[in-house]
Amino acid sequence: MFTAYPYPSLVSNAPVLQRRLGTADAAFIGLGSMIGAGVFAAFTPAAQSAGAGLLVGLVVAALVAACNALASAQLAAAYPTSGGTYVYGREQLGPWWGFLAGWSFVIGKTASCAAMALTFASYAAPGGWERPVAAVAVVALAAVNYRGVTRTARLARVIVVLVLIALAIAVAATASGGLHRLGELDASGLVAHGPYGILQAAGLLFFAFAGYARVATMGEEVRDPARTIPRAIVIALSITIVVYGVVAVSLLGALGADGLAASSAPLRDAAAAWSWTAPVVTIGAALASLGALLALIAGIGRTTLAMAREGDLPRWLSAVHPRFHVPHRAEVVLALVVVALVLTVDLRGAIGFSSFGVLLYYFVANLSAFTQKQASRMFPRAIFVIGGGACLLLVATLPPLAILGGIAVLAGGVAYRLVVRARLVR
């Protein structure tokens, strides 16, 4: 029996979002976030870190993601509102913990938006036009989100189905060419790069799993959230784990660890046995990037809404459109920031930075779930101990530049909040 939480906001008379999403809608949004550009891009840096040991890293990343998903599901059932772990951290641990989670999510995922847009353009745009095409993609998907969450869910369904078809064709082509390198995946090859390499690969691959947060951040727009959100998260994550496992084994079987580490387009290279699959993989990668970008815009907008309601971001960002019932100011500002980034900065290498922010976000989620009272608890506390500890361990093994950049961003956020709070005290 869960406690109904008196949200939508701690601010009286705040505008609210509408509950329009069912389990299938929420699951597709989660799938669109996870089966995104990560499946086309994350395996190469993982192979560079761990070689064939990326399979072990994938298992570790999946286990950590499962712990985090269960924490998110338990918390979302108790706090069915926008904002995800920002709200959970505030209510279970205190305002600073919530701010740490929200700031990590918004900044890290804003960079991910730019990375997804540039990834899309690298596949879809002619040479020299990547940045303008990326900017147009951001504006177009922001417009879809602006028109209402049901349109976001419908487009997510279409994109997910098309991407899964493209992945199925690529895997079939890869298998038809022969998975001759599978024999090289012996025990010594799996651990050749040592525990550090495996954990670094897990941290990088975690980037591809993190989309289930989008379901929790949209808790204010889901029907019967105590039942719908846990189901949607479990469904989306389970499907994603199976898909990633099949793709990883296929890539290693066709290219080997060294070939995978050297490939800039591993799925396209592995599927070369069927020459006509190259454009299919290209289209699939472009659509996957758009799907991830679509879900990111929706999730960041809702977290920004929650932070603005509490004054941790400017309060005028908490406005909800009277007709479309979306946080329209937050989404417009996000779109402008992302457009500025894709026109000026190369963020296609932002996987490590994004993983830093997301892992901290889920550390707060696990800690929040651990502190929930028995009446609100769905799963054993040991799960959240494992999940929180694993998040910190994976953060520590990320590339040094990602760690330093993440620390700098967190310091900037803390300074901002201290200044705002000091002004309120005066």
By CATH, the architecture is named: Up-down Bundle
In the predicted model, the low-confidence regions spanning at least 5 consecutive residues are 1-12
* Mean pLDDT across every amino acid position: 82
User: How many domains make up the 3D coordinates?
Assistant: 1
Reported for the largest beta sheet, the result is: none
Radius of gyration, in angstroms, nearest whole number: 20 Å
Q: Write down the overall geometry.
A: globular
**Strand pairing plus helix content: what structural class?**
mainly alpha
CATH fold group: Amino acid/polyamine transporter I
Order of helices and strands: HHHHHHHHHHHHHHHHHH
The CATH class label is: Mainly Alpha
Helical proportion, percent range: over 70%
Q: End-to-end span in angstroms?
A: 43 Å
Strand content: under 5%
Number of strands: 0
Query: What's the name of the CATH homologous superfamily?
Result: Amino acid/polyamine transporter I
Number of helices: 18
Short description:
The protein is an all-alpha fold and 426 residues long. It contains 18 helices and no strands.
Please provide a written account of the structure.
The protein has 426 residues and is mainly α. It has one domain: Amino acid/polyamine transporter I (Up-down Bundle). 73% of the residues lie in helices and 0% in strands. The chain is built from 18 helices and no strands. The chain has helices at 23-34, 38-41, 43-50, 54-78, 85-92, 95-124, 130-146, 149-176, 187-190, 194-209, 213-217, 225-262, 266-270, 277-309, 328-344, 351-370, 381-396, 400-425. The longest helix has 38 residues, at 225-262. The model is unreliable at 1-12 (pLDDT under 50).
